[in-house]
Design brief:
The chain is an alpha+beta fold. The protein is built from ten helices and 36 strands. The protein has four domains: about 20-240 and about 320-325, 3-Layer(aba) Sandwich (Collagenase (Catalytic Domain)); about 340-440, Immunoglobulins (Immunoglobulin-like, Sandwich), CATH 2.60.40; about 445-625, Jelly Rolls (Sandwich), CATH 2.60.120; about 625-710, Macroglobulin (MG2) domain (Immunoglobulin-like), CATH 2.60.40.1930. The strands form nine sheets. Strands 1, 2, 3, 4, 5 and 6 form a six-stranded mixed beta sheet that branches. Keywords: Disulfide bond, Hydrolase, Metal-binding, Metalloprotease, Protease, Signal, Zinc.
């Protein structure tokens, strides 16, 4: 028993140590992006070469010119948590204090840097302030709070992209050219942080750093050995171009961090080592610089950036992120008395589905006085102006939704420009924020049959639309793969590398012209990365939806995933490209969902990081109902028959219970329940083995019956 107890204790301490070790996702996230998009490797190499040359130039300037100017960089802190109160105002301010000390070599523990390296201590002369004005020049405390689902975490994938968009449960970045964005959240995988540096191929709205909330600042929710704010110091070092001090070469000594005054180092360092510490790359004193902010030691043992690292960071700041140096984000704005602003036009935007528009705008009072009246104008393209006189009582820095007079539009693409005039009956004190613009289009409706093989270069095809909420991977045109052609529509789930993201490829509005029935046919090819025999796996899903209200709602008529979807029956770890024989023709009966009115079809991909899905040769057709069926409501055919008989209903009566066939002797030959009625409102009977003669088809309802005579002949 004692032996087992000791094992349990040892296991606990081992696990506690493992989970307590610093883990930065910056290099790993970049490596994953290169794996998904190999062309990024060339960009990263060019960026590294540029910075190597730049930091040399920076060092020469430092020797021959005046001390670099002190810069104050506006910071916006996005608290993205299920309980945003977990990160307090004091905690945020404590982190800013740490950054301002560490980046100006003013941290008290800098004295603990060994004497041999004291001359190498660098001062970036970069300070950080919480933003005092928003991108729209309104007062702010520099903190944005977004409440997530309980326990939600965000991965380091794509530099923590999911935390950086409101559409994926995160917080949208403020203008990267004016602010350093810091997202503070729960990070999955035991990572403490990840950076998305400028110049490395990340979308600009993803640039910034993401920090584990328990390693942010020096008070509040911080815990463990990462309680002195050095995680943010480390990740912002990445943001300004620094690599890990060991070069991320897994101990091979083959790759350096690109800084001449940091000793060559084999691998990361954990804990608080005793100086000097030697390793396989530097095996003589003074050893490795484990107290550098770009190593993995505990917060209490991180003390310095070197002058070489400072040169690199200043080069990035002054040449790649130079707009931060001139940002006015640290300067509080001054409100004028009367300032009516239009934040945006919320409707119409994008594709509209009917020709009547009712513009909706967001009116904001950016003035110090309450806003009680303002005139709002709008114009379509270069057409006439339409005015609306708004009255109300809108407090300073509050906003309201305003619906403007409607208008009819013709088939075309439009710019809608709306603007305010005369707030409270006086000239606007700031006319730079008066105007908002939206772009929308009204396309010609399609009639049946509708066919699309994606042969033309334009994508989406004319009249079609895309829904891509995360602005990442979505449907695209494949120019060299198709079913019987060289083109198709494709979504690259293998490269998407995300979970449960939805992307729609949407048809034009289709007028079925009162067709009795409508059917969809299309070719599909798909594969998976995981073993198709896996159970419990989250698969990519392809769905077909019908929407009759311009995508506000939809009815799912087709949904396939994993083994039911794929056309290559084994796992594919490379990008799937179907052969000519790896396509399947699928069909969907749309009749019940379209209600004989105008509709659209959405081909929906739900990605779960498996592999590519292709669709091609889309055909939507209508079928007319037999006039006798429409007139009588039920049809028995063929009549006479030589064996197979169909009993088809125009609409299935709610009180129908069963359908039976009797011979002339009153014997029951076959019976089918109403619940057996399938696609096309049809029941099938087989009289092949019955003798020729007269039969009776009896329709049995709840309180009545109907009999139809049937002849069997050969």
């Amino acid at each position: 028993m004692r032996q087992n107890f000791i094992i349990i204790i040892l296991t606990f301490f081992y696990c506690a140590t493992a989970t307590a070790q610093r883990k930065c996702g910056t290099a790993e996230a970049l490596q994953q992006r290169v794996k998904e998009k190999p062309s990024l490797q060339e960009l990263l190499q060019k960026n590294e070469t540029r910075m190597q040359l730049g930091q040399v130039q920076q060092r020469l300037h430092a020797r021959t010119e005046a001390t670099p100017q002190t810069v104050s960089i506006p910071v916006v802190v996005h608290i993205v948590l299920d309980d945003t109160s977990l990160v307090t105002a004091a905690q945020i301010l404590s982190q800013l204090d740490v950054l301002n000390r560490d980046y100006n070599a003013a941290n008290p523990d800098v004295s603990q840097v060994p004497a041999v390296w004291q001359p190498l201590i660098g001062n970036t002369r970069i300070s950080f302030c919480l933003a005092q004005r928003t991108p729209d020049d309104e007062p702010t405390d520099g903190v944005v709070k977004v409440k997530t689902a309980p326990g939600q975490t965000f991965s380091i994938a794509n530099g923590g992209a999911d935390a950086k968009y409101s559409s994926t449960g995160g917080s949208d970045a403020w203008d990267h050219s004016r602010y350093l964005n810091i997202w503070v959240t729960r990070i999955s995988g035991n990572y403490l942080g990840v950076a998305a540096p400028p110049g490395t191929g990340y979308p600009v709205e993803q640039e910034g750093v993401m920090i584990q909330y328990t390693a942010f600042g020096t008070t509040g929710s911080v815990s463990g050995v990462y309680n002195l704010g050095r995680t943010a110091t480390h990740e912002i070092g990445h943001y300004f171009g620094l690599k890990h001090i060991w070069g991320d070469d897994n101990g091979s000594c083959s790759i350096d961090d690109g800084i001449t005054d940091t000793p060559l180092q084999g691998d990361n360092t954990y804990g608080c080592p005793t100086f000097p510490k030697l390793d396989n790359c530097t095996n003589t004193a003074p050893g490795i610089m484990f107290m550098n902010y770009m190593d993995y030691t505990d917060d209490a043992c991180m003390h310095l950036f070197t002058t070489g690292q400072v040169d690199r960071m200043r080069y990035v700041l002054e040449n790649i992120a130079a707009s931060l140096m001139t940002s006015n984000g640290c300067v509080p704005p001054l409100l004028v008395n009367n300032d009516a602003s239009l934040v945006n036009v919320t409707d119409p935007v994008g594709k509209i589905c009917n020709n009547h528009i009712t513009p909706v705008v967001t009116l904001r009072n950016r003035g110090a006085n309450p806003l009680t009246a303002v005139t709002i104008w709008y114009q379509l393209n270069n057409g006439p102006l339409t005015s609306y006189k708004w009255t109300g009582n809108l407090a300073s820095l509050k906003q309201a939704t305003v619906t403007l007079p409607g208008a009819n539009v013709a088939i075309n693409s439009y710019n809608l420009k709306a603007y305010t005039q005369l707030p409270n009956g006086v000239p606007d004190g700031n006319i730079t924020n008066d105007t908002a613009i939206s772009h929308f289009r009204y396309d010609a409706e399609a009639t049946l049959p509708l066919e699309q093989g994606f042969e033309n270069d334009s994508f989406p095809p004319p009249g079609w639309d895309l829904y891509n909420p995360d602005r990442s991977f979505t449907w695209e045109r494949s120019r060299d793969v198709g079913k019987g052609s060289s083109a198709s529509a494709l979504i690259r789930n293998l490269g998407y590398n995300t979970n449960d993201q939805t992307d729609d490829l949407i048809t034009p509005v289709i007028d079925p012209q009162s067709a009795d029935s409508v059917f969809l046919f299309f070719d599909v090819a798909a594969a998976v990365y995981s073993d198709p025999a896996d159970t419990g796996n989250s698969w990519d899903t392809l769905q077909v939806l019908v929407t009759t209200d311009c995508r506000q709602t939809g009815t799912i008529l087709y949904s396939k995933w994993g083994p039911n979807l794929i056309t290559r029956q084994h796992a594919v770890q490379t990008e799937f490209v179907p052969t000519a024989g790896e396509w399947r023709r699928d069909s969907v009966d749309l009749t019940a969902a379209i209600h004989k009115g105008k509709f659209q079809i959405a081909f929906r991909n739900i990605s779960n990081s498996e592999n590519n899905i292709y669709i091609d040769n889309i055909r939507i057709v209508k079928k007319e109902v037999n006039p006798t069926l429409r007139e009588k409501g039920v049809l028995v055919n063929p009549n006479p028959t030589d064996g197979i008989v169909w009993v088809t209903f125009y609409q299935v009566p709610e009180d129908l219970q069963q359908v039976s066939i009797y011979n002339v002797h009153g014997q029951v030959i076959a019976t089918r329940k109403a619940a057996d009625i399938g696609v096309g409102n049809r029941l099938t009977f087989n009289l092949v083995n019955e003798p020729n003669g007269v039969y009776f088809v009896k329709l049995i309802y709840r309180n009545r019956a109907n009999t139809i005579k049937l002849m069997k002949v050969r």
